[in-house]
Amino acid sequence: MHEVGIAQSILEAVQTEMRPYPGALPVKLAVKVGAMSGVDRDSLSFCFEAIARGTLFETMILAIEDAPADELELSYLELEEP
Hints:
This protein is α+β, with helices and mostly antiparallel strands. The protein has one domain: hypothetical protein PF0899 fold (2-Layer Sandwich). It contains two helices and three strands, in the order αβαββ. The protein has helices at 3-18, 41-52, and strands at 25-34, 61-67, 72-80. The chain has a three-stranded mixed β-sheet, covered by helices on one side. Strand 1, helix 2 (41-52) and strand 2 form a beta-alpha-beta unit. Helix 1 packs across helix 2. The chain starts with a helix and ends with a strand. 16% of the residues are buried.
């Protein structure tokens, strides 16, 4: 189940993207997942929720968007100012 590793990498990327915005809260994150990426969307959602539980990211919404071929990338991160 490589979705656990992908979910962990997503959270690490979010942390990196949030560094320039101290005090901001993550609201929504969109990830593009291609049909041929080998990623099970339900498993990714489950793993993301499990890893985020009890952290600053627990209430953040994960939106999984369709993408072509084997694409797997962050689409956008929505933050809320304190």
